[in-house]
Amino acid sequence: MRYILDNIEAGKLTEEVRRRGLSDHQKVRAVVETLNDLPLARMAEQGGAFDFLTDDPDLYGETDIRSRNV
Questions:
Q1: 21-32, pLDDT tens digit by residue?
Q2: In the list 20, 22, 50, 70, which could disulfide-bond 26, CB 3.0-4.6 Å?
Q3: How many CB atoms lie within 10 A of CB 69?
Q4: Contact at 8 Å (CB) between 13 and 19?
Q5: Higher-scoring residue by pLDDT: 56, 11
Q6: What span, in angstroms and rounded, lies between the C-alpha atoms of 3 and 47?
Q7: What's the CA dihedral at 45, 49, 50, 53 to 10 degrees?
């Protein structure tokens, strides 16, 4: 049997599957597609792209800040 569950919060997925009568041992195929994409910077942070900054917190300091020529 095929069910299409659309626009369901991830935390409520198990509850929705049970509501449809599927047991905890029923084998299913799940395709996860997020509806609200993460901003690029947040994805990079979650992926560890900025982890190197914690290894060297003094990489940049106040002396590196430059005033704009106006």
A1: 999 899 988 888
A2: 22
A3: 4
A4: no
A5: 11
A6: 32
A7: 160
Q: Would you state the structure tokens that stand for residue 1, as one six-digit string?
A: 């049997």
One-letter amino acid at 57 equals P
C-alpha distances in angstroms, 37 versus 9, 24, 31, 44, 62?
A: 14, 30, 16, 13, 34
* 14 sits in which H/E element: helix 13-19
Sign of dihedral through CA atoms 54, 60, 62, 65?
A: negative
User: In one letter, which amino acid is 49?
Assistant: A
Q: What angle do CA 45, 38, 46 make, to 5 degrees?
A: 20
